[in-house]
Amino acid sequence: MRSSVNGGDDAADGSAASASYWWRSLEEAMKGQGASAQVRVVREMERLAAAGNDSLDDLRHKLLTYKAGDLWFPTGGITKQEMDIPPVITILLLGLAAAGKSSLVDLMYSVIGRAGFVPFTSPAEKDGRTLCLEEHNVLRSMRNGFCVFDSRGLDYDRMPDGLEEVAGWMENGIRHRQPCRGAEDSPAAAAASSAAKRFTWRRVNCTIVVADLYDLHQSLLSGNSAPLEATGALFHYHPLKINSSEGPILVLTHGDKLSPEERVEARVKVCGYLGVSETSGVYDTSCLNEYGAAVDEMDPTTSYAVAEAVFRALVVGDRSHRPKTRIKDWPWLALCWLMSAMAAFFAFLSSCCSQLGKVNRDYKYGKQS
Ligand SMILES: Nc1nc2c(ncn2[C@@H]2O[C@H](COP(=O)(O)OP(=O)(O)OP(=O)(O)O)[C@@H](O)[C@H]2O)c(=O)[nH]1
Ligand SMILES: [Mg+2]
């Protein structure tokens, strides 16, 4: 059973015809349940709905006027000038294949870039899969303080390979049109790869893991734990930790394919499995409604959830900056490199000597016998 979309008081009084309040049918049944995880999820949805009606424009304005480093705050006795803050904060969307990353990017354009239903992501293959990393200025603003990168989803059967690729992105940075593994044979990916050389490398400042809640729910029901395990492996993948405390933000899609009870229950179970709070840093943002139509800014709950997920990503991103390397640090760095090189040289020398000693011993004993 699917979540009911048009409902609640607003729909009844006609003030927001396409508003989505799917969880409201649960409120009556949950009365007197105390503060169970399910109740907390419903309250969180109410919070997003209220904020969506009252302060979506404020949040949009904050995103529109955001400049990299605006959400940074001093720690460790170091000034902002001493921090290495890039001109643009980079948010990377990750997830399994068909989780809804590209649809989420389109939703961001629609609700925070006010672009209506125009799809901005460009799957060049018939199966709709993304071929290469794509940088998106979802605000459609000339003074963009952040960008969102869409990526190709990881496949269950090639998780180690996919995770290795993700580790490379986190370590070396990413750039627009950089081809993704698994799409190298496509002519469109080859064309993209030659274009990529002209685009700027960006260091990833924050990641958002997009997960298909319907798929995870089915996984929980059927006992086929592959989707759940793959999502857990990605979510807890060490290179995604921006610093000791910040893991990725979780965005759950496809919830519209579940009944309200299933939707709340699945969220609670998935968050329990991942070991994260079900109400903090987790957003349920279905990209389609029950009629299969794209959700837009007329749905204040989803709109606010998307905008807040981006805002939270910027807060995390602004905590990811490192202090600049100072001129007076260079001699120490050079000394460290020198010591490492010497250590490697002596290790090599000792290995050569031990080999020579072995050859010599073999020769001596060979002669005696
Ligand atoms: N019902 C429903 N369908 C969705 C939702 N989000 C995405 N879809 C559909 O799921 C399919 C896959 O979505 P994509 O956005 O292409 O998924 P992706 O993560 O970009 O996939 P890859 O590029 O292969 O990694 C499309 O047919 C979307 O229309 C959602 O919230 N609800
Ligand atoms: Mg895609």
From TrEMBL:
Signal peptide: none annotated. It comes from the Eukaryota. InterPro entries: P-loop_NTPase (IPR027417). The chain crosses the membrane at residues 330-349. Keywords: Membrane, Transmembrane, Transmembrane helix. This is P-loop containing nucleoside triphosphate hydrolase superfamily protein.
